[in-house]
Amino acid sequence: MVSHLVVFLLVASLLVPVPVPAFPNLTDSAPQNQTLVNNSSSQPLFHPRERIQKQLKAYLKQINKPPVKTIQSTDGDVIDCVPTHLQPSFDHPQLKGQRPMDPPERPKGSDPIDTVTDIYQTWADSGDSCPEGTIPIRRTTRKDILRTSSVQTFGKKANRFVRRDSTGSGHEHAVVFVNGEQYYGAKASINVWSPAVTDQFEFSLSQVWVISGSFNNDLNTIEAGWQVSPELYGDNYPRFFTYWTTDAYQATGCYNLLCSGFVQTNSRIAIGAAISPRSAYNGNQYDIGITVWKDPKHGNWWLEYGSGLLVGYWPAFLFSHLRSHANMVQFGGEIVNTRSSGHHTSTQMGSGHFADEGFKKASYFRNLQVVDWDNNLLPPSNLNLLADHPNCYNIRQGKNNVWGTYIYYGGPGRNVRCP
Description:
The protein is mainly beta. 8% of the residues lie in helices and 30% in strands. It is built from 4 helices and 19 strands. Strands 5, 10, 11, 12, 13, 15, 16, 18 and 19 form a 9-stranded antiparallel sheet that branches. Strands 9-8-7-6-14-4-17 form a 7-stranded antiparallel sheet, with no helix packed on it. A 3-stranded antiparallel sheet has the order 1-2-3, with no helix packed on it. A hairpin with a 6-residue loop joins strand 11 (287-294) and strand 12 (301-305). It starts with a helix and ends in a 9-residue tail after the last strand.
């Protein structure tokens, strides 16, 4: 089991954001006084910079669908209210011309549906909202793409193997996981903070993973939670996000709605939007509920936010192994450590404080549950704890009658014991 886990964490840690450009960098300047001629036809050719700009323009047109309404958020985001049937997922050949599926049966043991669930998203603070029949989509800008190396890598986890020891660059985790059985979903409430991310090409996230595959090139994952990613979003706000892949982050999958995949059905939640308010050290604490489960009738994987707020679903046909079930569920935090300054990063995980500090100081997951073959929510059994570098980020597990199974996790990164 340990060998399988190590291999999984290696594969799942492919995202060192040092991508190799598929073509010249988007911000490269064009050589001056250069004439490009096609020798066979003597017709002028587009300069590489012009070609890149055309690709950029075409991609933005493809991903930003025509809205019926636009909302300007106080944090700088532009939220487009796009007709549900025009969202990016319906560009997929197997979804063209279709409409979203009807809501599925919720897992047995779910909390009662709360019709006034707080969504805790900055763009909605003004009280403005998207009309029924539309979904809110965070508009992708030219600046968003220019922070990456190419249109092809934008919104994706780079496929690159990395070293996972104290001297290498890569991902570091503080997580709990279960494996060895068949799983059909997972649920938890995740404490929301604003951890400092000290390098543009690093991130800090807290999420639920639903995993299946042989831990090689056919790894399937569904991921949901919150993340701080300056490269993807251009700021240090914690943002509600999703991810999926069916080939170990190679060619398939993406964040949020940045490719054809996840089908959103909700008009209140903007995937990729900033979460507000956020927890404060020794102050008020806020968390978001995340549930991912497999619809027993149609086999799609649904995502719920809070109590009963269905966000949408990943169609079953996207996956190979997850078309059947998951064989691992994981909860916890992850950061990228690029060692760009020659030492361990100071990027924080969770609240930026170690698990031992407890409530109002360390970040937590509470009410950890898994979904079984009969669509029952159950507390996980035989939990395994893993902290790659416990002097940098650690984790503690507990259980009580109020929070059920819970964890505290996180840390400051670089310190005297984490050089």
